[in-house]
Amino acid sequence: MKIAVLPGDGIGPEVTREAVRVIEALDLGIELSEAPVGGAAYKAKGHPLPPETLALAQASDAILFGAVGDPDCDALERHLRPEQAILGLRKALTLFANLRPARVFAGLEGASALRPEIAAAIDLVIVRELNGDVYFGEKGFRTNAAGEREGYDVMSYSTSEVERIAHIAFRTAMARRRRVCSVDKANVLETSQLWRDVVIEVAKGYPEVALEHMYVDNAAMQLVRNPGHFDVVLTGNLFGDILSDQASMCVGSIGMLASASLGERQTAYGTFGLYEPIHGSAPDIAGKGLANPMATILSAAMLLRHSLGQAAAADRIEAAVARTLADGILGRDLGGTAGTTEIGDAVLARL
Ligand SMILES: NC(=O)c1ccc[n+]([C@@H]2O[C@H](COP(=O)([O-])OP(=O)(O)OC[C@H]3O[C@@H](n4cnc5c(N)ncnc54)[C@H](O)[C@@H]3O)[C@@H](O)[C@H]2O)c1
Ligand SMILES: CC(C)[C@H](C(=O)O)[C@@H](O)C(=O)O
Ligand SMILES: [Mg+2]
């Protein structure tokens, strides 16, 4: 079993280190190999996703990813910016299904930005499409008829792109509370009308699953008003990006939300995938030992479950995280005082 470890920039290396310590402590005979990605790779090798890093990722059974993004690189041409590394990996490896679970751990109800009784009911998973939408359409700058500079990004989805992510959402719902809420903007966007038409067709194959449709603006509101309503939230790349950051504050902190990015490729052990916290490189706290590593540690648990067939080890990590939180060992993002290493130590002690 091989894991490619891509720590990246800012707090990426800090949080990845803690997740690696947890994986190593389980002693599962996993081979871990590290490579640079993002701004770190640009500075070392001239490209945010060097060919050696992509080759290592391709030759592995799973990827553990930290975060990319570096203010020093914000003025670079877009194809050289750190964020292109994660977008490039998702696209090159056809990782089209992004699962972002959000639930409130016992003891964290008071850390939510919502009232505790509303937060306590949250147990949802956002199924975000990751290979299409306005992220990957034609984009550029041009001069319009009035002689003004104009930027453009084309939003589109094909039928097959929506079909494959819809199947993932319905299959996910079958293993949960059997409810799918498809989030779109079909009252304005043709991309969303196609999305809705295709989701309705795919739903016919899953008669046990209750399907509803919601406009994204309403969904953003309902996620705060009554988040317990949601089970599986199926949505596109851009809406899923935004709603998942919002969901993170509903459960307490962006430092808590893990993710799996999956495609169809099977390995000897499970489904090939990339695992990362949903947060970024957090330049404001980088290098200070303040980052909460829980999202990355929980991403490692998802990796063991989905890509390496190690469900028992994943359960152990999740239980250790839950015990750490229940014991009140919280980072500053959750109103506590524990630093990155202290949180990692606490999880290790409870494995
Ligand atoms: N997948 C990724 O690699 C990814 C995801 C999001 C943003 N980014 C990049 O990260 C950079 C910074 O973006 P941003 O500031 O908008 O988002 P961010 O998620 O990095 O940070 C937003 C806020 O949340 C806090 N935060 C984030 N993670 C935390 C953690 N684990 N513990 C405690 N606090 C945490 C930060 O300190 C900051 O105040 C940008 O370059 C952006 O493009 C990368
Ligand atoms: C860094 C950026 C490209 C990325 C995205 O928009 O998908 C991030 O915000 C995320 O949520 O993983
Ligand atoms: Mg995001």
Automatic annotation (TrEMBL):
GO biological process: L-leucine biosynthetic process
Location in or out of the cell: Cytoplasm
Catalytic activity: (2R,3S)-3-isopropylmalate + NAD(+) = 4-methyl-2-oxopentanoate + CO2 + NADH
Pathway where this protein functions: Amino-acid biosynthesis; L-leucine biosynthesis; L-leucine from 3-methyl-2-oxobutanoate: step 3/4
Top-rank EC class of the record's enzyme: oxidoreductase
Cofactor note: Binds 1 Mg(2+) or Mn(2+) ion per subunit.
Keyword field: Amino-acid biosynthesis, Branched-chain amino acid biosynthesis, Cytoplasm, Leucine biosynthesis, Magnesium, Manganese, Metal-binding, NAD, Oxidoreductase
Gene Ontology terms for molecular function: 3-isopropylmalate dehydrogenase activity; magnesium ion binding; NAD binding
Binding site for substrate: R90, R100, R128, D217
Residues reported in the UniProt entry to bind NAD(+): G280, S281, A282, P283, D284, I285, A286, G287, K288, G289, L290, A291, N292
Site (Important for catalysis): residue numbering on this chain: Y135, K185
Cofactor: Mn(2+); Mg(2+)
Limits of the Isopropylmalate dehydrogenase-like domain: 2-347
Major site of localization recorded for this protein: cytoplasm
UniProt: Mg(2+) binding residues: D217, D241, D245
GO cellular component: cytosol
UniProt EC number: 1.1.1.85
SMART domains: Iso_dh
The protein's role, per its UniProt record: Catalyzes the oxidation of 3-carboxy-2-hydroxy-4-methylpentanoate (3-isopropylmalate) to 3-carboxy-4-methyl-2-oxopentanoate. The product decarboxylates to 4-methyl-2 oxopentanoate.
Record note on quaternary structure: Homodimer.
Family: Belongs to the isocitrate and isopropylmalate dehydrogenases family. LeuB type 1 subfamily.
Name of protein: 3-isopropylmalate dehydrogenase
Organism: Novosphingobium nitrogenifigens DSM 19370
